[in-house]
Design a protein that fits this description.
171 residues; DUF2231_TM; elongated; mainly alpha; DUF2231 domain-containing protein; 87% helix; transmembrane
């Protein structure tokens, strides 16, 4: 057995749990945690009390999503290779591979929002109220754009995945 075969075997073992493909198991974590993180980000952008209560939790949730998405995509690619060329799976895979840049942006905006309101807002509001207001508006706009983009893509991924799995079954 050469190194390539060993690496392939190791990857297959890592992308399974108890013989089951990892992708359908881990995808549900992403599907639940991502909308919760987007919701927390949007609440924090428009509701100061929610932002104060959530603190760094929103940024940590976004970081967790950022860590889970590449694992989910890799597990999905492994599963797609086992299944073979199926157009519905290829469509789902194409949507799934587009998610990483969006969750990077989700993390950047969530971390930026937390850092701004934790460290920068008070001082800048005192010294330059106009700049502080512009920053709050910019963060709110970024939260809406990134949150909307993540959610639309997540819905497209979920819909195409459900159609790939269940599309051929009679109603």
């Amino acid at each position: 057995m050469d190194v390539t075969e060993l690496a392939s075997l190791a990857q297959e073992e890592l992308l399974q749990i108890a013989g089951l493909p990892l992708h359908p198991l881990i995808v549900h974590t992403v599907v639940v945690l991502t909308p919760l993180t987007v919701l927390a980000l949007l609440l924090g952008a428009f509701w100061p009390a929610a932002r104060r209560r959530s603190g760094i939790v929103t940024a940590l949730g976004a970081l967790l999503v950022l860590g889970l998405v590449p694992i989910t995509v890799a597990a999905g690619q492994s599963l797609a290779e086992r299944i073979g060329p199926v157009p519905a799976v290829a469509r789902h895979q194409a949507f799934g591979e587009m998610l990483l840049p969006w969750v990077i942006a989700l993390f950047v905006v969530a971390a930026g929002q937390w850092a701004w309101f934790r460290y920068g807002d008070e001082r800048v509001r005192r010294d330059s109220p106009g700049a502080a207001r512009a920053m709050r508006i910019g963060l709110a706009a970024a939260s809406v754009v990134v949150g909307s983009g993540v959610m639309v893509l997540l819905l497209l991924i979920g819909d195409s995945g459900a159609r790939a799995v269940w599309g051929g079954l009679p109603s």
